[in-house]
Amino acid sequence: MLSKVLSIQIGKVKSYEGWESASVKESVSSAVFASKSGFIGDEVADKIHHGGTDKAIFANSYENYENWAKFLDLKELPFGALAENLTISGLHESSVCLGDIHKIGSAVLQVSQPRKPCWKISKRWDNKKFTSEIYTSGLTGWYYRVLEEGDIKAGDEVEIIKHDEAKISILEANTAFANPLEHRDILEKIVDISSIAESYKVSVLKRLEGTFSLEYMNVDES
Fold it and tell me: Distance between CA 44 and CA 62 in Å, rounded?
């Protein structure tokens, strides 16, 4: 199946009642430069949990949109509904693997980790269960680091340059993270992937130790 960028979104930090976020992003029709720190013009409100070179660009699979629209009891969702920079068709959490290298436009990107959904996505869509549903489904989207800077525009094809030899998909990684007792072996393999984001490696190690807190994502495991 042909994989391509359906839409590119960038966002500015905006203030809401009691919180700030750049998660409500707007689609852009022109090419956008992907720098090492992300798309030019895209802002980050919470720099502790978002942004940085290992989480420069957030991508999401358009194949999940129908499912999320049904969950939110909406007819359809706009591009960028999950706060992603890239809405991509033809790629999915079940096929995208940690460490994979993709060329999009003139930029070369590497999959660095799954996205960890935060409470703000529930705030945006006024659904307290949405963040938890994204987390437990494993359909979180994924982050790219930028290996080679370049321009990306809507309509660009996604060329898979290299599959990481570990071949652990985003969905598999998320399932293991959500169920560490059943999938300890997968979590241990993830830690050994040299190309994953360092902060993600720390989270996986804490998950193995039983010390990782899901409070930030507003997920209750009790």
Answer: 23
Measured CA to CA, the distance from residue 31 to residue 40 in angstroms comes to: 10
HEC string of 169-182 equals: EHHHHHHHHHCCCC
Domain extent listing, the chain: 4-217
Q: What would the pLDDT profile of 181-199 be if each residue is shown by its tens digit?
A: 999 999 999 999 999 999 9
Output the CA torsion sign for 2, 152, 124, 94: positive
Q: Mark 85-117 as b/e (b = at least 16 C-beta within 10 Å).
A: bbbbbbbbbebbbbbbbbbbbebbbbbbbbbbb
Please report, as a single letter, which amino acid is at residue 135. Y
What pairs with residue 113 in β-bridges?
143
- In angstroms, the Cα distances linking 79 to 5, 113, 124, 160 are 11, 22, 14, 23
Any idea which fold 4-217 has? M1 Pyruvate Kinase; Domain 3 (2.40.33)
The candidate with the shortest Cα–Cα distance to 24, out of 72, 88, 77, 93, is: 77
β-pair partners for 4: 89, 157
Q: Does the model's pTM come out above 0.85?
A: yes
